[in-house]
Amino acid sequence: MSTEPITPPEEDPALQDDARAHAVSPDAEPEQPSHEAEIAKLTAERDDMRDRWIRAEAEMANVRARAKRDVDDTRQYAVQKFAADVVEAAENLRRGLSNLPAQTADEPEIVTKLRDGLEGVERSFVAILERNGIQRIDPTGQPFDANLHQAMAEQPSEEHAPGTVVQAWTTAWTLNGRLLRPAMVVVAKGAPGGSASGTEAA
After folding, report:
1. What residue ranges define each of the domains in the chain, with the CATH number in brackets?
2. Neighbours of 191 (CB within 10 A)
3. Are 103 and 119 in contact (CB under 8 A)?
């Protein structure tokens, strides 16, 4: 009986090829996460942090702007009540001057001196107010402005366009551009119509 030589497993070419196919190179590194995925993750984290930082900076800018505006308003308008009282005194002074008799050539000297003195006091008083942001605005001849004027009456007028202030009982006063007291005014409402003339003729 013939016998064939038995090839040891380690010398079998088929087994050697299979072993080489599954062999791990000693220089091979363990499997690492994809570099692209890691970069994308870090980029997303960076963008998120940047967006948060931009939003925080914008909010802080808004807070600073509001605080500055509040401080400026407080500084400019803290004396608003006092200014309104001072304006009342200025109006009383103006009313006192208006009630003096009209100047005549033969008026007593004491009356002339009194008028001149009061007018000088008023000029000085108004100048002090203006230096402190309080302005007097005479509306006579100006279009009616509901932001500055309070209409007390209407008056027919052929000399003024309808809606024009024809007379100011008091002037308007502002504090740094903000209204303190509206002017009390009489507003033109236009000339009488033809029906009024017809009534008079009848």
Report:
1. 77-192 (2.30.22.10)
2. 13
3. no
List beta partners, residue 144: none
The type of residue at 58 is: A
Exposure of 166 in the CB half-sphere (CA atoms within 13 A): 17
Query: Average pLDDT of 84-89?
Result: 90
CA atoms within 13 A of residue 134's CA, in its CB half-sphere: 22
Average pLDDT, the chain: 80
Q: Considering just the CA atoms, what is the radius of gyration of the chain in Å?
A: 47
Q: CB atoms < 10 A from the CB of 146, how many?
A: 8
Q: Which run of H or of E encompasses 103? A: none
149 and 188 Cβ atoms separated by less than 8 Å: no
Q: How far apart are CA 30 and CA 33, in angstroms?
A: 10
How long, in residues, is the chain?
202
pLDDT at 104 over 70: yes
pLDDT of residue 202: 31
**The pLDDT of residue 16:** 58
Closest CA to 135 of 68, 90, 188: 90
| Residue 68 banded pLDDT, cuts 50, 70, 90 | confident
